[in-house]
Amino acid sequence: MIDDLNDLQYFVLVVRHKGFTAASKISGVEKTRLSRRVAILESRLGVRLLNRTTRQIALTEAGSHFYAQCLTVVEGANTAFDSIANLQIEPAGMVRLSCPQVMAETYLSPILPGYLLMHPKVRLELNATDREVNLIEEGFDLALRARPQIEDSAGLVARKLGVARRVLVASPAFIARCGQLESPEDLKQVDTLCRPGDVQNGKGRWLLENGGSSCLAAHTPRLLSDDLRMQLEASIHGLGVALLPEPIASSAVARNQVELVLRGWTGAEHIIHLLFPKPKGMLPSVRSLIDYLSIHLPASIQEHSVVI
């Protein structure tokens, strides 16, 4: 077992430059250190690698075999170091980003192609999942999250990029049939569309806010689904009131396929933030994506917001 791989490097230098003096001048390593380390290497191997005279050196048979193997190790190590150096010169290599499915479809899909066009040497893995990933353990460089507040994440940086809410919507035909709702209490009288997680003991429960006021609005869901796109389509078809994230509902609101219900009342505000390890030692590829998202994502969030 070699305790110090530098010994292999020193041995290669001496052989390549045909002597300790020349190797010392080219490498900057003291001649005495080169001589001592090669001698230690020979002692550890139990064979003579070099025949030395006052004017030159020559490889022994064992030294010739050993030198060929050392070249592979030393050149491989140099290639490994060069690959990291190249990554540090300009954005290049793989960047892994995790975010919820809704954000991937609405916020990121319009802007990420522009980033990849700007940085042709970067490869991007976008993991669209509603599961909260562990950046460190799972090897992600960045994660987008939406939470009522930015969580305390030890060793990670959280950068706020915008806010989003869930909004109450229904189709114009549904509103014409059931009438305008005046307060959250009126939700008890109409069909609703919601996620299974919003139901307790057979009754739907939505936490709604209006300025400084809040209430837990009870309702009776006609459709239960975690598929928010399905909820939107059902709402467009007049099947009930849905409480949907702004990026899901905004385009349908703009096209007048659905209208806001109970204006002023929304779901809790969620902070959208970018989570990443502390910048020390960060590669340019990761830094470039952080900078790009910090510039372009707030505008994409704003574009998919709804005027309450």
UniProtKB/TrEMBL annotation:
Domain HTH lysR-type: 3-60
InterPro entries to which the protein is assigned, alphabetical: LysR-type_TF_proteobact-type, LysR_HTH_N, LysR_subst-bd, WH-like_DNA-bd_sf, WH_DNA-bd_sf
Keyword Transmembrane helix recorded: no
UniProt record similarity statement: Belongs to the LysR transcriptional regulatory family.
GO biological process terms, semicolon-separated: DNA-templated transcription
Record bears the keyword NAD: no
Protein name per UniProt: DNA-binding transcriptional regulator, LysR family
UniProt GO MF annotations: DNA-binding transcription factor activity; sequence-specific DNA binding
Keywords of the record: DNA-binding, Transcription, Transcription regulation
Pfam families tied to this protein: HTH_1 (PF00126), LysR_substrate (PF03466)
